[in-house]
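cache lookup: miss for this entity combination. No prior model stored, computing from scratch. Input as submitted by user K.M.:
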Amino acid sequence: MDDRALLDTIRDLIGTEETADDCASFELPDSTILVSSTDMLHETTDFPIGMTEFEKGWMSVAVTLSDIASCGAQPIQVLAAVGLDDPKRLVPFMEGAVSCAKRFGAKIAGGDIDSHREFTVVTTGFGIVDKKFYCRRSGASAGDAVCVTGTPGCAMAGLNGDERYRAHLLTPVPQVEAGQLIARAGASSMMDVSDGLAISLYDMSEASNVGFELDSSRFKLPDVSSGSAMEYYLYGGGDFGLLFCIPPAGLSGLDVKYTVLGNVVSEKGVWCDGKVLEKRGYAHHW
Amino acid sequence: MDDRALLDTIRDLIGTEETADDCASFELPDSTILVSSTDMLHETTDFPIGMTEFEKGWMSVAVTLSDIASCGAQPIQVLAAVGLDDPKRLVPFMEGAVSCAKRFGAKIAGGDIDSHREFTVVTTGFGIVDKKFYCRRSGASAGDAVCVTGTPGCAMAGLNGDERYRAHLLTPVPQVEAGQLIARAGASSMMDVSDGLAISLYDMSEASNVGFELDSSRFKLPDVSSGSAMEYYLYGGGDFGLLFCIPPAGLSGLDVKYTVLGNVVSEKGVWCDGKVLEKRGYAHHW
């Protein structure tokens, strides 16, 4: 069983709406939306060997800010709950966490310190977005362009030992400014591709009840020293690019680096060069 | 080293204000305060043997709602990040979590599902309170009465096998309504006593820069079948009573069950019947 299947088992309990996005939302009195997201990371599954405590702190905050960014929101605060096997890890970890939060205009506003056999961190971030610019996974319409920022696959290339992509893997950059620009340009849907591009396309297809026709000649593949660039691009996790759909007119004047991958169609599914795209990506398994 | 000493090591990095309370705060445009709190609980240290998954879900949400309650705030949303050793635990756990949130007017609005060797949960709650009623650990003034709701020590009695207090231990009740009534009655400071009454008094003394003179003849000790009721009352953790200070006039008409423990004095410290109260309580140790 993987985490997507497991989420299905609590959909009735929690609500379809509540389980549809990486962020929760709450409407504030002034027509803004408070978005929030929480992410658990722990030693054995999320932190590549050799990663410094600073980098772990940076990444722990970055994963949450990436979710906030994908709503088109400005992050404001982050809480960090840290379960420590060794108390000496706290200071360098928090230096990385504070550094990342600050870089993107947010603040570490609190948290919890616990002892734990395995170094385990949960960061929770909040952000604010004008109601009219609030983006979700749902909302894409047939006729929209489907686009991605950055170059998916770089983090996986880094994980496989390509030193040029070490920073992509260990100190990923949440697309906070890009997310807000894309939202303001009129994006109909948005999410990050941290679980991989292909699985994210399927997630968005499901939430928006539309399909995607991709044209692989448009893909800007990463330059990789080993393995398949296409495999990395479609199925590598850990990148913080934003996948978004937008009426084509919205793209003119959008001052963000993006790639148009193809078009949104009304039939649910994901096709690449006319063939069904394999549905797989990063998942937790039991 | 314990978690209070460890928190000191990051006070400069995070900020004195940010590390002073169980809740973080953010001022919203309409003169309300968004408060938030995050808590990590995990199998080996936080869940007594024999506890059901439902009770673990309830408790995980209750600890966070108790922090929200201690600000005088109404909880609105809770996020739950759950690290599971066995995926079958998720549904009954979430049933308990949803049940607790609903009971106190909040909603499980999202979360994260992860695999983990040790069952580990982090709940993060948000609440809203009018700026003029927002309570913190700081703010107590000499001349205030120092009071507590409920009967501290019951959870510890339950932990030590007294079946009458099983519910106090396993399905604790966050004082959400009481917190709001106390705040509106003009409390100058408030916090919950989940780490024990004595250590909470010292925490509040530190934050408010005042002292407390307690009169033990006023204590309403729990009826216990073994051990010392006074020990449980002062040093037992796991109870969700609210410790608060308030100008005595505020107590008239306060429709909450509370005990006046003594008075706030200007000198920092905690005394009981004229003697310095031993400073100890629940803490994480490495």
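stored under new cache key. The longest strand of chain A covers residues 32-42.
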